[in-house]
Design a protein that fits this description.
Number of strands: 0
Distance between the termini: 103 Å
Number of helices: 13
Structural class: mainly alpha
Helix content: over 70%
Order of helices and strands: HHHHHHHHHHHHH
Largest sheet: none
Radius of gyration: 31 Å
Length: about 270
């Protein structure tokens, strides 16, 4: 075998040193450290907003001390660290894992809450797909049902109002699109969803007025008057009722409804 030349010997030696260094680093990574030292190191990284380091170190706590109470705490802190870093998908996966492993843990409500907030933070404008908004709605509702007396449920209720309003807004946008294209049945389906499924949102008055428009376009005069009556009964001061009344009467003021068809329609509907 031909001996190595002097330059090649230097290259070979450098490669051996590099391999040895890598091996040393790898071995160093698996040296077991005291659990409190690791946990505090992870907390320091979290406080310093070095979220990737925090997640990595909390994971080391769990892997090196899997049966300790610190391991469970670290699983929860991994969720929070991923949430703070904006890695919402990772945080959701970590939350679901915690919930599956510790369904009866005293802090499981917090895991449910972080999961819901991760979805909530990703809610986009109504012009985009609303799958994540629906996921946020489901997750927030889950908190209210499972942990009704907690601070997480109180906050979830507030966020539910916004989430429902957002989903209703999406239905309205689609409904208006169909209405402008004179696809009245498709539009009516969207407006009815708002009235039936999102009754507490700000979009209901407009949805009822749009239903009046669709009814009249299809020649459904009775249904138009009934929807206008529902609108007038629940939102008498709304501009949407003013518009609906003008549509079904051909003009005039809603004040005239007191002695006209409105009273009869209200008595029929209610």
């Amino acid at each position: 075998m031909r001996p190595l030349s002097w330059p090649l010997r230097l290259v070979a030696a450098a490669l051996l040193l590099a391999v040895a260094a890598c091996g040393g680093d790898k071995n160093q990574a698996y040296i077991e450290k005291p659990v409190d030292e690791l946990y505090n190191k992870a907390l320091d990284a979290l406080v310093d907003e070095r979220y990737a380091d925090a997640v990595k170190t909390f994971d080391q706590v769990e892997s090196q001390h899997p049966y300790s109470a610190w391991a469970t705490k670290s699983q929860l802190m991994q969720i929070y660290s991923n949430y703070e870093s904006g890695k919402y998908d990772d945080a959701v996966l970590a939350a679901e894992r915690f919930i599956q492993l510790h369904p009866g843990h005293r802090d499981v409500a917090y895991a449910y809450y972080l999961k819901a907030i991760c979805y909530y933070m990703q809610i986009t404008d109504v012009g985009r797909d609303q799958k994540v908004t629906q996921a946020a709605l489901n997750a927030l509702d889950d908190i209210v049902r499972r942990f009704p007396d907690t601070k997480y449920a109180r906050d979830a209720k507030l966020k539910l109002d916004f989430t429902r309003d957002h989903l209703a807004g999406k239905e309205m946008e689609i409904g208006r699109y169909y209405l402008n294209r004179q696809e009245y049945l498709a539009a009516m389906n969207r407006f009815k969803r708002v009235v039936e499924n999102y009754q507490t949102t700000t979009h209901v008055p407009e949805a009822l007025e749009r239903l009046v428009e669709c009814d009249l376009a299809l020649g459904l005069t009775k249904e138009a008057k009934e929807n206008a009556a529902v609108l007038g009964y629940n939102y008498p001061g709304s501009r949407w009722y003013t518009d609906a009344y003008a549509l079904v009467t051909g003009g005039g003021s809603p004040m005239e409804a007191r002695d006209g068809w409105f009273s009869r329609a209200v008595s029929t509907v209610f």
